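Re: weekly structure request thread

Next one in the queue (180 aa):
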Amino acid sequence: MILGGAQMGLGEGPEARATLERSLELATQGYLAPMRQRADVILASATGMSGDLDTAEQAFRAALSTSAAIGSPYSAVEAKLSRGMVLASHPAADAGEALAVLDDAVTTFESVGARPALARALRARGTALVRLERSADADESFARAAALASEMDLRDAPWPTSAAGLAALRSAEPPIAFTE
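Done, posted below.
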């Protein structure tokens, strides 16, 4: 599962799928529900990055079901965050639905004080707002995410401070390739 997560971090969604599918098999055979939930979330994200949104939705539903079965509301909101991130960044996905999912994640992370997750949710929310052509709201979301990331010295991804900053980042590096 760690290798699959690392492949996802490098933007190698299609390559991560096989690794994550094997992790999911092992977690299921070993009755490791928390590990299975996490593997479902990462696999769903990899599947979404590969362009298969329908299969990704099934995997996200499985992750949410496992979260409910193990009684973990935090893992459920992490699954929702990952789903929102996939929906926000995939050109064929519904950006409005992504925004609704991410708004829910932001509210939850704020209420429990999960600042790193909150920063990531705000960054993804900014991306959804850019897709909805709401630049002023996107700027606010990106600025807040970047401020939190700076306070915590998060270095897991670029932290644009505005919609224009996101556009500059996208033009400076190759985009994640979604396949269909």
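The mean pLDDT is 82. Residues 1-71 form a domain with the Serine Threonine Protein Phosphatase 5, Tetratricopeptide repeat fold (CATH 1.25.40).
Next request, please.
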